[in-house]
Design goal:
alpha+beta; 3-stranded antiparallel sheet
Length: 502
């Protein structure tokens, strides 16, 4: 072997690599865009997944760069990412110029990881076709159809808390709420009784938790796969853990086979998807949506399950945390619930839940302070010029929408760290920029399950507050500390609160 040639090859590779990285890290400087100076190899991601959550990084960068221009620059590994600050520009990105920004560029590898091919991740025409198929399953009529299922689980949830409240016990509410939403989504998505309220070690609960449990390396792997998806697919990398994939695919195959052989129909999400899979349309609709494959159905049911239980349980966790520190607000919320229940003879009808306006304000203010998805990624589908600026970015450039930063901006929300549901009265909403609150995104790629998520959260909070008072304990995390290893915004060490009967 010619070691001189080997040495020269290695040196050449290192030099070329060094020059390429230097060029990448000059991207924003050459364009004249304000940016945060990166450090190889993670760019600006140092500490993410280990010391702090990515959402906290987004907020820090937003605070540092906002006001210098309508956009700023940040680096995820060696990849330059544009961060827009101006709310009118956000409207362009999410709605007016959506044709440029329709892809999230989340990693998809359906060949090796079929559950990755879900609506949240897909791009281009495949996303558009799938969105058209799924949108009819999330109408208000379909939500009303599933409402009774949610109420049944909520009654079990309320009864489950009784013993703790009798003893005025300190409880870890995040886990309990996660079990509640697992049972709700398991029933609405799969038509199965998960029973995780009774048994915290049920397979649905265990597998659901595994989806969102990341170490520092796995967290960075997600960023890497989003930034360099072709590399990931070449290496046959997966985002779904194999045992999680095997469990959900197996449960779905078994459930669908049983329903089809026995002509079983239920008022749940899976029943709607089976209709689309087999006929290309819903029973009460004339529109031909096109049939779905089993793999497509599995991926959509999977994302409905994991997104539905974790986002709603985390929202309720943060809401109870804020309500425990604000007894006046908690009492006002409870009074509204009891007033509405009295009007509807003590029943949580769909109409009763839709009248819980102050509970909605509590939820919206909770999502402002603690947006479960703290930033949105968009990828340019074609070259784009920033309106009223000379900045032009090429196809493939990433944009990161800093939701956490916007939600805590004192110029938009005075005293932004204070919990105040009155920020979301109809009048105050009208007086604020329509893109100042984005927990569900906005435009054509907003969260398709927003109605369901709000309904589930509304019911969960109402059933709890109607009978129980929540107060802080010595173990309540004041001030809030977020878990660096969670895929979504979540308390670092759970959420300990005291529960007692009203």
């Amino acid at each position: 072997m010619d070691w001189t040639l080997v040495a020269l090859s290695v040196i050449t590779f290192v030099v070329v690599g060094y020059l390429w990285v230097k060029k990448q890290y000059r991207f924003f400087e050459e364009k004249g865009v304000p940016f945060v100076r990166p450090k190889f190899p993670l760019g600006n991601l140092w500490g993410v997944g280990k010391k702090f959550h990515s959402g906290e990084l987004i907020r820090k960068i937003y605070t540092k760069l906002k006001g210098k221009d309508v956009i700023g620059g940040v680096y995820f590994f060696t990849r330059p990412v544009v961060m827009p600050f101006d709310l009118d520009l956000l409207k362009h990105i999410l709605v007016k110029d959506f044709q440029y920004f329709h892809d999230r560029n989340i990693y998809v590898n359906e060949k090796d990881d079929p559950l990755s091919g879900h609506l949240f991740a897909l791009g281009g025409q495949r996303w558009k076709h799938l969105r058209n198929k799924l949108s009819p399953t999330f109408t208000s009529g379909k939500m009303k159809m599933m409402h009774s299922t949610i109420i049944a689980v909520a009654q079990e949830f309320q009864n489950y808390l009784e013993d703790f409240a009798e003893k005025k016990e300190e409880i870890e509410v995040k886990d309990i709420l996660g079990r509640f939403t697992t049972d709700v989504i398991g029933s609405c998505a799969f038509g199965l009784e998960c029973n995780s309220l009774k048994d915290p070690d049920t397979q649905f609960r265990v597998m659901g938790k595994k989806v969102f449990d990341f170490g520092g390396f796995e967290f960075l792997k997600l960023f890497f796969l989003s930034m360099f998806p072709n590399v990931g697919r070449t290496l046959r990398m997966r985002v779904t853990k194999p045992d999680v994939s095997d469990f959900f695919m197996g449960v779905l195959r078994e459930t669908i086979d049983y329903r089809e052989k026995n002509n079983v129909k239920r008022n749940d999400f899976l029943s709607l998807l089976i209709q689309i899979k087999n006929t290309g349309k819903l029973d009460d609709e004339e529109v031909d949506l096109g049939k779905m494959t089993f793999e497509e159905l599995a991926a959509q049911t999977f994302i409905f399950f994991i997104a539905g239980f974790e986002t709603s349980s985390s929202t309720m966790t943060f809401a109870l945390y804020e309500l425990s520190k604000n007894q006046k607000v908690q009492n006002q919320a409870r009074e509204e619930v009891n007033r509405v229940l009295e009007k509807y003879n003590g029943e949580y009808t769909y109409e009763a839940c839709m009248e819980l306006k102050y509970i909605d304000q509590v939820i919206k203010e909770t999502l402002r302070l603690h947006p479960i998805v703290p930033n949105l990624i968009r990828s340019l589908g074609q070259d784009y010029k920033i309106p009223d600026r000379d900045y032009v970015f090429k196809k493939g450039t990433f944009f990161s929408i800093p939701i956490f930063g916007i939600h805590r901006d004192p110029d938009i929300y005075p005293d932004p760290d204070r919990f105040d549901p009155d920020r979301f009265t109809e009048e105050n909403i009208k007086n604020r920029h329509s893109y100042a609150w984005l927990p569900f995104g906005e435009g054509p790629r907003n969260c398709v399950g927003m109605r369901f998520g709000m309904m589930q959260t509304r019911v969960g909070l109402a059933t709890l507050l109607s009978k129980y008072r929540i107060t802080p304990t010595d173990r309540t995390p004041i001030p809030m500390s977020y878990s660096p290893t969670s895929a979504v915004l979540s308390p670092r060490d759970g959420m300990w609160l005291k529960i007692e009967k009203v």
